[in-house]
Amino acid sequence: MKWVVAAPLLAAAIASAQAIVDLGFTTKAGAGLTALYTRKFGPAVAQRFQPWAAFASDQKAVPFSKKLESAQGHEADALQIVNDSINSQIKWVEDKVHWGVDDYWATPAESIASAGGDCEDFSIAKYYMLKELGVPLARLRITYVRALKLSGQAHMVLAYYSKPDAEPLILDNIDGRVKPASQRTDLEPIYSFNDDEVQMVKSGQRGKPSQLRTWLQVQEHLVAESRT
Amino acid sequence: MTLARQLLIGITVAFIALLFGIEAIYVSTARSSLEEQLDAHANETATSLALSLGTRAGALDASVVNIMVNPVFDRGHFESIEVRSPGGERIFGRSLERTEIDVPGWFVKLIPLAGPTGEALIASGWKQLGKVVVRVHPGYAYEQLFKTARATLIWLAALFALALVGVRYYLAGILKPLKLIERTALAISERNFISIDIEPGTRELQSVTAAINSLSAKIRDAIAQEAERAERLRMEAFEDPLTGQLNRRGFDQTVSATLDDRGDVYSGALALFFVTDLDEVNRVFGQTRGTEILKTLAATLATPGAQGSATVGRWQGPTLVAFVPNIDAKPALAWADELCRSFSAQLRADGLSESAALASGLTHFSDETVTLAGLAQAAEGALAEAVKKGGAVLASPEGGTQGTHVDMKQEIESAMEADRITLLGQKVISFSDQDVMQIELLCSLSGSDGNAIPAGTFVPVASQHGLLPTLDRKVIEQTLDALERVESLPWVVSVNVSMQSIGDKAFRAVLKELIVRKKQVSRRLVLEITGYAASRSPDLTKEFAAEVHRLGVRVALDNFDLDRNSMAIVHELLPAYIKLAPAFTQQITTRDDLRFIVEAMVRMLRPLEIPLFAQGVEDQAQIAILTEIGLTAYQGFAGGRPEPLPPA
After folding, report:
1. CATH class for domain B405-644?
2. CB-based contact B39 A207, cutoff 8 Å
3. Interface-testing mutation among B128, B135, B137, with chain A (most A C-beta atoms within 10 A)
4. What residue segments make up the domains of chain B, in order of their start?
5. Measured between alpha carbons, how far is A170 from B333 in angstroms, rounded to an integer?
6. Which of B50, B72, B371, B489 is least surrounded, with the fewest CB atoms within 10 Å of its CB?
7. What residues of chain B have any CB closer than 8 angstroms to a CB in chain A?
8. For the CA atoms of chain B, what is the radius of gyration?
9. What are the pLDDT digits (tens) for B222-262?
10. Pairing of strands B358-365, B421-430
11. The domain spanning residue A155 has which CATH number?
């Protein structure tokens, strides 16, 4: 029940983060954050941030969101770019090995700076990248799945819904190719969520669609990062 | 307001503030935790509904949703549960009609408790089916909050009330010594220099107690010292060491003062006593025998008896003198004669010759004005005769004006009835700044012929016939009247009251009523009693003084002579001031020992806050010396003769 207690505090933190609409964006990784993570992860951090930030700014120049809109039926191609970019920047490492704890959800900056993460870190990084590139949140779902090919292991992917009732496209790190869900019979979806906190708080209603403790912790960390 | 009350009020206010503070904190905390619970409830419900709806159907249809949502809705405290399509349309919804919450409106307004909204996405496999939106009704939470808040408030209030009672008793205990200290301090300010005999437990109170006791003791000691000194000096000046009675000076002074107080002494006898052939006794039996005889004689004269109580003194050498007030001529003579015979017989019995015998020459006065000198002359003449004849001889005084007794009584009565009483005022002037401090009002009667009757004449007659209470009452009535009418009178006005009036119950009752009726001006009044009268009737004087003091009127002593009894009554009476007898003023310029006595008196009276005035002051020389000695003010011809009051 710990997250029940943490939730209201988080709500306050997130409410104050109302103004910070670019949480988790590459633009947020400034000198302060770079310095902080350099101390944590080593001198290579600045070098790692650079392509990550460059990618985002390049795509925004296109603009990516328009490309995705007009790609009717060929969204997979556009999304592939993002999937490839993130997958290449993060190496798959177990949380236990990489972070020293059983389950740790890293912020995108943390994953990029440490150049390592596990399935949820990939999904989170892709989620925030797409958000930064202007993709409406309503189309994104972070989804808990079972990886049937890996003896039913718990796994996480990012699903993109071009329309609410459409079949989603899956951005994954096990299989790097963006495919429609029907073609990913090796994944069994369990539960999905996305983050509408900012909108929710703006409308004055309390209540968080995603009450996951771990997700809320990520929010906390993002807010902390934005303060450096 | 007392200290205890102040503290208690302060503590009560603090308690009340605490009470509300704690209650507010409690409510706030309870509210937060309730909000968290509601949040959790909303989200749990949404999540579980979403999950179960997802597994149930490939598509959402109203009847399926209906079946699944209803039980959930009915179980909890929901305002609404809605299921929406991915596009946002409402597929199904149930909402609660606004029910009345059993909580007062002001409470709801005061404490905002919003029902939170929980959401969860419904998915079947990869397909998004929609979302569940759950809104919780805060009503139940409000009821919980209100009930517990109220209970907490009641418990806190009860607890605080109990604590307050405890505090009150605790305070009372600590402050108990303070009450006693306060009482002592008040007594000291009333010139009653007592000590505090308890030992408080608090350090500060201990210090205060010690300081007050030390101070009070110092003043007490100082007064006692000066009183002792004054007494010693007085004895040296006025007592005859041999007989233990007054010496010539002392006797002259005392009796002169007494003769001035004709209100209380309306008649009297002055008797001289001489043992014939005392030299022979000395020669034969030795000086000590003669001394013994004189001592015995003095003691016998001083013993009160049927004749009353005499003032006894050593007149000259072996001649003793006795002054007996308020006695008729016949009984006086009888007394003196009897004394002579029994004393002589005793001498015989003791083996002395016939030639040693007691002889007495006395004189008597009643209504007429007399002086001591005049009385003395007559008495000495009578004694010369008595020595030749033996026994006691009575002579009438010389130089006295004989007034017809009965006529005078009538004159006085008619004057009082016709209100032929005038008030004359004599100013009392302060030595330091020559300002008029106060004024004494004396009464003057005019006879049926319109002429003023001298006070020396009418006072003793009025006294003898018990007319003084009526006279004194009229004087006081007129005085109070004058206080109201005449604006130019000084603030303090004094009048004389005789012991005869004080002892009269009717007079006392009327006086009380007068004072109360004229409350505004009566507090300016001072009633003067002679030192002689006060020392003769100390208990009555004290009783009277206490009675009028309660009504706001003060008492003072005038015509004050220094004898043992007078000193004693000063300490107990604490008069507003003391006026020394004129005899003092006359003698003080020439005699140093008298000066020392008065100086000691001044010092003794200072902590008691009793000023000393001089009477009968006639010239500047007297004023100068009296100022040096430390007296406060004077009255007499030098300050102005008694004059009629100015008109209204």
Report:
1. alpha beta
2. yes
3. B128
4. 3-161, 248-395, 405-644
5. 152
6. B371
7. 32, 35-37, 39-40, 42-43, 47, 51, 85-87, 114, 116-121, 123, 125-128, 131
8. 48
9. 888 888 888 888 888 889 998 889 999 889 888 888 887 77
10. unpaired
11. 3.10.620.30
